[in-house]
Design a protein that fits this description.
Blueprint (H helix, E strand, L loop, with lengths): L6 E3 L1 H15 L4 E4 L7 E6 L6 E6 H8 L3 H4 L6 H10 L16 E7 L9 E6 L2 E7 L24 E7 L4 H6 L10 E8 L2 E9 L2 E5 L26 E4 L7 H5 L17 E5 L2 E11 L2 E9 L9
Parallel strand pairs: 1-14
Antiparallel strand pairs: 2-6, 3-4, 3-5, 4-7, 6-7, 8-9, 9-10, 10-11, 12-13, 13-14, 14-15
Length: 310
C-alpha cells in the first residue's frame, strides 16, 4: 500500500515567502526577484538587536533617491567608491521603518562585481532610498516580537486555570486501605493559581470567594514558584492540534476496527486539516511535507468563527 502523497514545501523558501507576505500586508512594496547582473551594487550588513541581516543596493539608484539634486551639480559621474563612502557616511541611508529591519548601524560595506551577485531569487523591499535586496534575513521570529494586544483575534482562546490547594504523599499501604469517608490531609498548602506551567499568583479562601494576590506572602513557602508581577499575554501557552478528520461511529463499528484496517478518507482530506488552538478551531490548512517533517500550510484563518472565515 502506497503512502499518502503530499506536496513538498521547502522550509527556507517558506520563511522567505512569510517575510514578503508580512511586508506586503503592512503596505510595503515587496516581492521576490533577482538584481540585474550589472556593475554598481553595494553589499552591506545591518547590525540589529534582534539579529543581523544582509542586503544589496544599486549604488546609483540609491544616490538618485538620497540626493536627487546632486546629479545636476556634478560635471563628472560619481565613482562607485565615492558612492560607497556616502552610503557609509549617511546616518540612516535607507530610512527603513519596518519591524525587524533597521538601518541605523550598517557595516561591511563593499562594492560588488556582477560575478559576485546572487543567481537565485531574493526578497526585495522598496524603501524611500530605493530598492534593497536581502541576501540574509534576520533570525526567524524577530519580526513577530512585541507585546500581544488583548484585542487580538485570538484573545478569546479557552484557557484553563488550576487552583491548587496543596499536596500530600500517599503511602502504598494507605492506597490499599482507602475507602469512602476517609479524610486526606493536605500536608503542604500552596494555594497557587496556575495557568499551564505559569504561576499567576496565590489565592486566599474567603466567605465571598477567592481573593487573588500576585505575590507569595506565606513565610513557610520558601520553595514556592514566584508568580509574574504582570501577566504578559505573549507568554501564555497555546497548544496547537492538527486534526486530519473526524468520524461519527458507534460501538459496534468501533469494535470491528482492527490493526491494519483501512479507514477511507475523502480525496481532498489533506487540504482540510483543522487547526485548533487550545481546543478552538482557528484555521484550515493543507497537509504538506516540510523537509523531513509534516507541516500544515494555512489556507483559511477563522478570525471570528469557522462559518465566517476571512
Amino acid at each position: 500500500m502506497s503512502m499518502l502523497k503530499l506536496r513538498r514545501v521547502d522550509a527556507k523558501a517558506q520563511v522567505v515567502a512569510q517575510w514578503v507576505q508580512r511586508w506586503q500586508r503592512a503596505g510595503q512594496g515587496a516581492g521576490l526577484g533577482r538584481p540585474d547582473h550589472q556593475p554598481g551594487y553595494l553589499r552591506f550588513r545591518a547590525q540589529v538587536d534582534e539579529g543581523d541581516w544582509h542586503g544589496l543596493v544599486a549604488a546609483r539608484d540609491w544616490l538618485h533617491h538620497a540626493l536627487p539634486s546632486l546629479q545636476s551639480l556634478l560635471t563628472v559621474e560619481c565613482s562607485l567608491a565615492t558612492i560607497a563612502g556616502l552610503f557609509q557616511a549617511v546616518q540612516r541611508p535607507l530610512l527603513l521603518d519596518v519591524q525587524g529591519l533597521h538601518d541605523r548601524a550598517l557595516c561591511d560595506i563593499e562594492c560588488l562585481v556582477p560575478a559576485q551577485l546572487p543567481s537565485r531569487d531574493l526578497p526585495w523591499l522598496d524603501t524611500p532610498r530605493g530598492r534593497v535586496w536581502l541576501t540574509q534575513l534576520p533570525p526567524t521570529g524577530s519580526s513577530a516580537r512585541g507585546s500581544v494586544s488583548a484585542t487580538t483575534w485570538l484573545s478569546d482562546l479557552p484557557l484553563r486555570l488550576t487552583l491548587m490547594l496543596g499536596s500530600s504523599v500517599l503511602s502504598p499501604a494507605s492506597r490499599i486501605r482507602l475507602n469512602e469517608g476517609d479524610v486526606l490531609r493536605i500536608i503542604q498548602r500552596t494555594q497557587h493559581c496556575w495557568l499551564a506551567d505559569l504561576c499567576l499568583g496565590v489565592f486566599t479562601l474567603t466567605e465571598g470567594g477567592l481573593q487573588m494576590q500576585t505575590n507569595v506572602v506565606e513565610g513557610n513557602e520558601t520553595n514556592a514558584p514566584q508568580p509574574r508581577q504582570a501577566l504578559d499575554q505573549g507568554t501564555l501557552p497555546v497548544r496547537l492540534e492538527f486534526v486530519l478528520a473526524t468520524h461519527d461511529t458507534d460501538l459496534a463499528t468501533l469494535s470491528q476496527i482492527i490493526d491494519g484496517q483501512l479507514i477511507p478518507l475523502a480525496d481532498d482530506a489533506a487540504r482540510h486539516i483543522e487547526v485548533r488552538a487550545n481546543g478552538k478551531p482557528v484555521a484550515r490548512g493543507e497537509l504538506v511535507q516540510l523537509d523531513d517533517q509534516l507541516g500544515v500550510e494555512l489556507l483559511e484563518i477563522y478570525r471570528h468563527s469557522p462559518e465566517h472565515s476571512r
